[in-house]
Specification:
The chain is mainly β. 0% of the residues lie in helices and 57% in strands. The protein has strands at residues 3-5, 14-16, 19-25, 28-33, 38-43, 48-54, 59-64, 70-75, 80-86, 91-99, 103-107, 113-118, 123-128, 134-139, 142-149, 155-162, 175-180, 185-191. The strands form 5 sheets. The protein has a 4-stranded antiparallel beta sheet, with no helix packed on it. The protein has a 4-stranded antiparallel beta sheet with strand order 7-8-9-10, with no helix packed on it. It has a 4-stranded antiparallel beta sheet with strand order 11-12-13-14, with no helix packed on it.
Length: 196
């Protein structure tokens, strides 16, 4: 998806930036360039790169706030964080601690809470968007990797990468966990088909 020519390299050399996630807002597309430690900004109409926002670590996910004023970017590593980017000028206005290699951010429709998956801690963290503080950490299945908020903000669906049981049994599957957003509790899990 993203490769750029670099000065000082071999003629025509391109470096792949390992895009992991994207989000769109108006005519702009924001791409998490993992190995470049940046968010690339594209003009969708012109299909051109118009800028980049440097980050303190490799981005693992991003989501645009419901009011389209801020972009929340998760960055990887044992001391992962959420970078808060102001969309009007691309400024990184805050960095909040968010656990080990957070990713798959999802924001509530009321723009009050951000949820991030912590795959190496088998948890989902709820962050208060006014203060950046951790409101709650919710235990989920093995390596949560994708999170989607229902349109009404009542439930957060979390897909886990690995099965909860041994991988040599008769039935081996990962799960999708269902979190009650207002109560901040795990309601249950949906077992996926065998072999998933």
């Amino acid at each position: 998806l993203i490769a750029v020519s670099v000065a000082g390299g071999a003629c025509g050399e391109e470096i792949y930036h390992s895009p992991l996630a994207l989000a769109a807002c108006g005519d702009r597309i924001y791409v998490a360039d993992h190995t470049a430690n940046q968010v690339a900004i594209f003009d969708a109409a012109g299909n051109v790169l118009v800028g980049a926002i440097a980050l303190p670590g490799p981005p693992t996910g991003l989501v645009i706030a419901p009011d389209a004023e801020l972009l929340y970017v998760t960055t990887g590593g044992p001391e992962g964080q959420v970078c808060v980017i102001r969309l009007s000028d691309g400024a990184n206005v805050a960095n909040w601690p968010a656990g080990h290699t957070p990713g798959a951010p999802a924001v509530t429709p009321d723009n009050k809470t951000l949820f991030v998956c912590n795959p190496f801690n088998n948890s989902v963290t709820a962050l208060n968007l006014s203060s950046g503080s951790v409101e709650q950490t919710i235990s989920v299945g093995h390596e949560p990797s994708v999170a989607v908020m229902t349109p009404d903000g009542a439930r957060l669906l979390v897909a886990n990468l690995l099965p909860a049981s041994r991988a040599d049994g008769d039935y081996v599957s990962a799960t999708v966990d269902v979190i009650d957003v207002p109560a901040r509790v795990l309601l249950g899990s949906v077992k996926l088909p065998n072999g998933s």
